[in-house]
Design goal:
Largest sheet of chain B: 6 strands, mixed
Distance between the termini of chain B: 73 Å
Helix content of chain A: over 70%
Oligomer: heterodimer
Number of strands of chain B: 15
CATH topology of the largest domain in chain B: Purple Acid Phosphatase, chain A, domain 2
Structural class of chain B: alpha/beta
Radius of gyration of chain A: 89 Å
Largest sheet of chain A: 5 strands, antiparallel
Strand content of chain B: 15-25%
Structural class of chain A: alpha/beta
Number of domains of chain B: 3
Shape of chain B: elongated
Number of helices of chain B: 15
CATH class of the largest domain in chain B: Alpha Beta
Shape of chain A: flat
Strand content of chain A: 5-15%
Radius of gyration of chain B: 26 Å
Chain lengths: 1079, 424
């Protein structure tokens, strides 16, 4: 394929940038542009043109990516041309018109089906590739296969790729490694499998443990049964052991009981002895007190006799009782003595009361005598109440007068308002006959309608006048800017034109007649005929001119016509309006006359209806006020009469005292009220005093009666007293105190005598108690055995002590007996309990029968039990362990399952990793084999081609390339040209300088391209600034090489460096195999 | 109304296959999936108050001897016993291979049908007769259904059978019989087991033949909801089976068409979208997804060369979508290279074409295979592979095997990518 034309329509900085590649000539095409001129953009554009735009927008810094468009004309080996356009969007590829879609395959065919990537690899050459290629060859240590593959297949990352594959493989697995993923996984899987096995519980083990558990459980039950039996035996024998000692003790107790003495009878007398002991103390104390009692008795008797002798001059104490007066008399004397004082007091109090009452009565009578006589106020009260019942008449009168005054003011105001067209009095005003409101309103509406009509007409007239003036103004304005041709003027002109026409026609038709007629008119016919054409011309010209102007100035003409019409219309309208106005004035005068007629009856000359409407309103108000005014006057007169009558009556009754002629009715009423109150108070005071005097008189009478009664009582007492005291042998006039003393003396003597008698009685009682005690003691002694001696007061204590000692002994014996009986009962009960259902005797015999060797037997049995316990404990542990184990298993641990799950997870990882490792290995092998195969099939041709290029590129420093085939591989050798100094020299790649190595790569690369071109036909080679690091010689050499390659195809060299362009033109023939372009 | 539960193929503690672990994966849910599904079954039976439950074979994996697994099953059956729910069990091919199935201390409510001949159990209170036979061997080639007792006309007859019927994809041929054989028995319900995919073989409400499928998917071939059937029997013996999902995690195969994809970022977004859609259909369960890339895509080589990178990227995307409810099992690449067609026309002298030619040549080159097999790395690796991968390594001995050819393609993709990378 060759490129004939390239057009960057809109792309990067380019717009319609065209490159004609010399009709697709082979050779070196150098594209020069300084930095920023768009070299890189053009390179990209070229690729986009051939292979399509990438999805993402690039190079859209000037034109929006949407508008990017590239165009080219290319041709293929069969000289077929393809003109196409590449645009953004769907169907990127279009035909030359930029619209018709073009099938991708058409272009692809021209490109030999190459993809962009392949194109780049095969036909792209840039500086970076060059450098990397050099490195590649060095790293490959000159391995020929690699070198050829790198250069020929255009792939300069071979070493890196191989290293990457190896690294990735190493990350996955190493035969001896531990850490790579697969190694680690394998180890882990194995560990997990172990853990899984460990956690796993197989059914045999489970069954074994379960069986073992059941067996042990059974054996345990058996041993526990055995132990229960043994424990029962031990318990029985232990019971025998305990019962044996009880049986022996019981026998001992029974023995002791038989030995105890019989019961003493004294125990039955225990209560008696106890009572005697209680009484003994009291008896002994009484005997001691008896002497004192006797002494007291004697002393009292002596005193009594003494008193008797002293007051009654007698010594016979035995008869002293006779002195005692009769109890009734005694009581009477005592009562009278008591009453004496009270009687005296009552008599005195009554007398005092009489005196007090007499004095009080006297005082009251004196006060009554001083009171003044009362006055009669009944009439005054009647009049007063009548006046009060009428209410405050003077205030009401004042109110009525104020009210009346107000009305009067209003009336006056209204009368004043009416004065505009009426000057009569109030009464006359009220009597006036006036038209109704409705009538007035009707007139008012009519007047208003007429006025409104007049205003309307006036306004319209003004409008019409304005319109007329406006039209006139417009006409004037039009006329000032030049005369306006009118239809009339044209018509006139045409008419004037007819004259010369007619004259000419006449002149032609009948010249003689014409001449004669002219002459007849007094003109020279010759002259007229000569002038005729000129006149006709002027007339026609005038007409034409007018017609033209009419046409030309049709607007103005029309405008003027409109204005004239306007003006005329306005004038007509004005006349009509004026007529209407006159008619209106007539109607108004008629209405005014009618209006004045309405008011003539009342003799009033009316103002306008609206004013008269207000006047009527005021008149109506005035008429309405009149009844109020009249009522107020009437009420005033009435009130004044009433007040005068009341005052007259009150003044008369009150008399001249305290009244004055000018006092108001209210003041008079107050004076009357005071008089009435005063008179009532005096009457009340007198009544009160009279009441008090009556009370005082009654109390005096009562006090006098009481004094009489008290005096009688005192006298009666004296009579009784005299009678009573005579019985005591006292004087009749002995005072009550003396009588009382005598009675007290008698009482004392008799008291002493009674006390002595009581003491004597107590002495006798003590003697009786002693005898009784001794009697009871002796009877007891008698019951307890044959009496040795009788107890006396002196021996009674000793006897009683003896009895007490005997009683204590008997009691001790009984206590002992009771204890023994109790113990025996307890033992019996316990044994009976042990015996259970057997009789006590049988049991005791059984126990006694086993009594021999009981202890050693028990010992044996306990040892046996210990052994059993140990066995059971061991078995229990075993059962527990098995049980726990089973319980634990019943938790159904998922450890093993989890390990298995984990193992599966790792296996899953392994199934990811293993194929990856294998694929990487295969990839390595494939790559190796591909390189080798490429070498084998291309070595011979490529090496020759490359040798030539290399020689050229190194300016013949080297002459060719050779191969070193050894066991270690096939290596590339550069042959240095023989010189005078040295012969041909074989240098390994490592021995070459960096620059030379780059050239070696370039040589191989150019050879690869050339070989490809030779096999598959031309294809443009894109070279991007590969010469930047070359010195001028080498750059020239390279350009020559490119020129040489350019014989086979187009080589598009893009560069920033102007000197390279120069260098190229020096080394190649411009126009033949060199073509230069600028951006 | 009578209700009973029908489940099969519990394969308790059977591992989830092909699922490697990675950071952020909801491991806990996955770990407990199988056991939790069985618990769900028991909960369902209790909640629905079924009269009895049927387990039609394969309680455990045949090669899994851990009694812990069996004891977990026993404990779950004991829960049913507490609720007076009898369980009728036949052993399947896996159980036949597993001694544990027969020897477990089952509670009294578990009735295991004997293996010597078909027997029947009658439930008088609900007028039901259950007929079944456990199998002593892991391979049964006889049509055992023929020997089942005749239907009792007065009762509802239920047959328990572990069978592959007339053959089901992915399942061993086992106790073969045809649906017609079963229909001839005049049983009202055939409770089948063995086939892990739910299938209603007969939908006639008077003669239902049902495979309930297994209760928890264990690998990417066991897709979709997994669970059991609750069968409702009307008074006139018409029946209706109702599927109840029991699975804890659900498997999905998510195909992503990469036709429009030009960058890994775009692909990630696309995958994310697919994952979100798939998750919406998982009924709140954990979704284990296999991402299958399809279509013609310029990234084809890159997928192969950087397979792990893409997989990890998708896993990260899954974490983004819902870390608790999504796990990515694996990445399956079924894309085609965009340049496939072009390459046939190429000049064949660029690196990529040379490699392609080389690969084409090596496709049938046994010498290459031998060379590879004697490679130290391969030899060592093959020797140390666990037995689970032996099959794979064995198949690689044959140059024509799909496995080897796949490896070659992958190698080519890796090289293509290496070449392109260099070029970029």
């Amino acid at each position: 394929m060759r490129i004939i034309r390239l057009v960057f329509r809109y792309y990067g900085p380019f717009k319609e940038q065209k490159f004609d590649l010399n009709n697709g000539a082979k050779g070196l095409h150098v594209f020069y542009g300084p930095n920023e001129a768009g070299k890189s953009t053009a390179l990209r554009g070229l690729k986009h043109l051939l292979f399509g735009f990438p999805r993402q927008a690039v190079d859209d810094f000037v034109f929006d990516a949407r508008y990017q468009a590239l165009e080219a004309v290319i041709c293929n080996g069969r000289q077929e041309r393809l003109h196409f356009v590449r645009v953004r969007g769907r169907n990127q590829l279009r035909q030359a018109d930029g619209k018709t879609p073009l099938d991708d395959d058409v272009l692809r065919d021209f490109l030999h089906g190459l993809t962009e990537e392949q194109f780049d690899m095969l036909f792209g050459l840039d500086h970076a590739q060059l450098v990397q290629g050099g490195h590649e060859i060095a790293e490959g240590e000159g391995d020929l296969g690699r070198a050829l593959f790198t250069a020929g297949a255009g792939f300069s990352g071979l070493n890196a790729l191989q290293a990457e594959l190896e690294e990735r493989r190493g990350e996955l697995f190493k035969p001896q490694g531990r850490n790579p993923r697969i190694n680690a996984l394998l180890a882990e899987i194995s560990e997990t499998r172990d853990r899984e096995q460990e956690a796993m519980l197989d059914i045999d083990r489970y069954r074994q443990v379960e069986r073992s558990y059941r067996r042990a459980r059974k054996q345990l039950n058996r041993l526990e049964e055995q132990r229960r039996n043994l424990q029962k035996d031990i318990s029985r024998l232990t019971g025998y052991e305990a019962s044996l000692s009880q049986i022996r003790r019981r026998e001992q107790v029974l023995e002791e009981l038989t030995r105890l003495p019989d019961r003493d009878g004294i125990l039955d007398e225990e209560q008696t002895i106890h009572d005697l002991r209680q009484s003994l103390g009291a008896v002994q104390k009484a005997l001691k007190d008896q002497a004192n009692l006797r002494r007291d008795s004697e002393a009292r008797k002596t005193l009594a006799r003494e008193l008797l002798r002293q007051h009654f001059q007698r010594s016979d104490l035995e008869k002293a009782a006779e002195l005692q007066p009769d109890p009734t008399l005694r009581q009477k004397i005592l009562d009278l003595a008591q009453r004496y004082q009270a009687c005296c007091q009552q008599e005195e109090q009554a007398r005092q009361a009489v005196l007090r009452c007499e004095s009080e009565l006297k005082g009251l009578e004196e006060r009554l005598a001083q009171l003044p006589p009362g006055a009669d106020v009944a009439t005054l009260r009647q009049v007063y109440e009548a006046v009060v019942s009428r209410g405050p008449m003077e205030e009401r009168l004042a109110e009525v007068q104020v009210e009346k005054q107000k009305v009067l003011q209003q009336v006056q105001t209204l009368l004043n308002r009416l004065a505009v067209c009426f000057q009569g009095s109030l009464e006359e005003a009220v009597q006036l006959v006036v038209p109704s409101r409705a009538t007035v309103e009707q007139y008012m509406q009519q007047f208003q309608a007429l006025a409104e009509e007049r205003r309307g007409l006036t306004r319209e007239m003004e409008e019409q006048r304005a319109r007329e003036a406006q039209a006139e103004q417009a006409i004037r304005t039009l006329e000032t800017s030049g005369a306006i041709p009118t239809e009339e003027a044209l018509e006139a002109a045409r008419l004037r034109r007819q004259r010369p026409v007619r004259q000419i026609s006449r002149a032609l038709r009948d010249p003689d007649r014409f001449a004669s007629r002219v002459q007849a008119a007094g003109k020279d016919p010759q002259l007229v005929r000569q002038q005729l054409p000129a006149r006709l011309h002027r007339a026609i010209a005038l007409c034409d001119d007018l017609a033209d102007r009419l046409r030309r100035e049709a607007d103005r003409v029309a405008q003027r016509e409109r204005n004239v019409q306007d003006q005329q219309a306005a004038r007509q309208k004005l006349e009509l309006l004026q007529k209407q106005l006159d008619d209106l004035a007539t109607r108004q005068t008629a209405r005014q006359t009618a209006w004045e007629g309405e008011w003539s009856k009342s003799g009033i000359t009316p103002k306008s209806p609206s004013e008269m409407l207000t006047w009527l309103q005021h008149h109506e108000q005035l008429v309405n006020l009149m009844p109020d005014l009249r009522a107020d006057c009437h009420r005033e007169d009435e009130l004044k009469g009433d007040i005068a009558s009341c005052r007259t009556r009150l003044t008369k009754l009150l008399g001249p005292d305290g009244t004055e002629s000018n006092q108001t009715l209210k003041e008079l009423t107050l004076i009357a009220q005071k008089r009435i109150e005063q008179a009532e108070r005096q009457v009340k005071d007198k009544e009160l005093l009279e009441q008090q005097r009556e009370d005082s008189r009654r109390r005096l009478t009562e006090a006098r009666q009481t004094a009489d009664s008290a005096s009688k009582k005192l006298h009666q007492w004296l009579e009784e007293w005299r009678a009573a005291v005579s019985g005591l042998g006292l004087d009749q006039n002995a005072p009550p105190r003396l009588a009382q003393q005598r009675l007290e003396q008698i009482d004392r003597i008799l008291g002493l005598q009674r006390e002595a008698q009581n003491l004597d009685e107590r002495i006798a009682s003590i003697d009786r108690d002693r005898d009784d005690f001794l009697g009871r003691l002796n009877a007891t002694l008698q019951r307890l055995g044959p009496a040795t001696a009788r107890a006396t007061a002196e021996t009674m204590t000793a006897e009683l002590d003896r009895l007490q000692a005997r009683l204590t002994r008997a009691r001790d014996t009984e206590t002992k007996r009771n204890q023994l009986v109790q113990e025996q009962t307890r033992l019996t009960e316990e044994l009976e309990q042990q015996a259970g259902t057997r009789s006590l005797e049988d049991y005791c015999q059984e126990v006694l029968a086993h009594a021999d060797g009981l202890k050693p037997r028990l010992q044996e049995m306990h040892e046996e039990l210990d052994k059993l316990n140990k066995e059971i404990s061991q078995l229990n542990k075993k059962v527990g362990a098995r049980y726990r184990q089973l319980r634990e298993w019943q938790q159904a641990s998922d450890t093993a399952a989890q390990q298995r799950q984990q193992r599966e997870a790792m296996l899953a990882e392994l199934t990811e990793d293993v194929p990856e490792y294998l694929a990487l290995t295969i990839a390595q092998t494939v790559l190796k084999k591909a390189v080798e195969r490429y070498r084998q099939s291309n070595q011979s041709t490529l090496l020759d081609l490359a040798g030539n290029y290399f020689a050229e590129l190194t300016c013949k420093s080297f002459c060719r390339l050779e191969v070193d085939d050894s066991d270690e591989g096939t290596r590339l050798l550069a042959v240095r040209t023989a010189s005078e100094q040295h012969e041909e020299e074989f240098l390994t790649v490592e021995q070459l300088s960096d620059g030379t190595r780059d050239q070696l790569f370039l040589a191989l690369r150019l050879a690869g391209i050339e070989q490809h071109l030779a096999r598959h036909g031309p294809m443009p080679v894109i070279v991007d600034d590969i010469l930047i690091n070359f010195d001028d010689d080498r750059a020239a050499a390279t350009l020559r090489c490119l020129g040489q390659l350019g014989k086979k195809t187009q080589i598009l060299l893009f560069t920033h460096h102007r000197h390279l362009v120069k260098l190229a033109s020096q080394n190649l023939q411009e126009g033949q195999n060199l073509f230069c372009y600028n951006f | 109304m009578l209700r009973f539960l029908h489940a099969a193929d519990i394969h308790l503690d059977s591992p989830l296959l092909g699922l490697d672990r990675y950071d952020g994966m909801p491991v806990k849910t996955l770990r407990q999936a199988g056991r939790k599904a069985l618990e769900n079954l028991v909960n369902l039976a209790i909640r629905k108050r079924v009269r009895f439950a049927i387990l039609a074979g394969d309680l455990f994996d045949g090669d899994w001897p851990d009694v812990n697994t069996g004891l977990f099953f026993v404990a779950q059956m004991a829960r049913l016993q507490e609720h007076n729910i009898p369980v009728f069990v036949i052993s399947g091919n896996h159980d036949a291979a597993n001694r544990m199935t027969r020897s477990l201390p089952y509670p009294k409510n578990v009735h295991m049908f004997p293996s010597d001949r078909p027997t029947s159990v009658k439930l008088d209170d609900v007028a039901v007769a259950l007929h079944g036979q456990s199998y002593p061997q892991s391979v049964v080639n006889d049509n055992v259904a023929r020997n089942y007792p005749p239907a009792d006309p007065g009762l509802l007859n239920i047959g328990l059978l572990h069978t592959g019927l007339d053959g089901r994809e992915g399942h061993a041929r086992y106790a073969p019989c045809t649906p017609d054989d079963l229909l001839r028995s005049r049983y009202q319900y055939w409770a089948l087991g063995h086939v892990h995919q739910r299938e209603s073989v007969s939908r006639n409400p008077r003669t239902l033949i049902e495979f309930p499928g297994n209760i928890q998917g264990r690998h990417v071939r066991e897709l979709g909801p997994k669970g059991c059937l609750i069968v409702h029997v009307d008074s006139d013996r018409t029946m209706k089976s109702e599927f109840h999902p029991l699975d804890v995690c659900r498997w999905a195969r998510i195909e992503v068409d990469c036709k429009e994809v030009t960058s890994s970022g775009e692909l990630r977004d696309l995958v994310k979208q697919h994952l979100e859609d798939a998750l919406d259909e998982a009924e709140g369960r954990l979704l284990v997804a296999r991402i299958v890339l399809t279509g013609t895509c310029p990234l084809h080589d890159d997928f192969h060369a950087h397979r792990r990178h893409y997989r990890d990227d998708f896993r990260a995307a899954a974490l983004d979508v819902d870390a608790n409810r999504l796990a990515i099992e694996k990445l399956e690449i079924r894309t085609k290279a965009t340049q496939d067609d072009d390459q046939t026309q190429t000049l064949g002298e660029d690196a990529r074409s040379i490699i392609r030619q080389e690969v084409e040549m090596l496709r049938k080159d046994n010498d290459l295979l031998q060379e590879l097999l004697t490679d130290e790395g391969w030899e060592r690796l093959f020797r140390s592979l666990p037995r689970e991968l032996r099959d794979y390594s064995d198949r690689l001995q044959d140059i024509g095997s799909e496995e080897f050819q796949t490896l070659l393609e992958r190698a080519e993709a890796i090289l293509n990518c290496g070449v392109s990378d260099e070029q970029d």
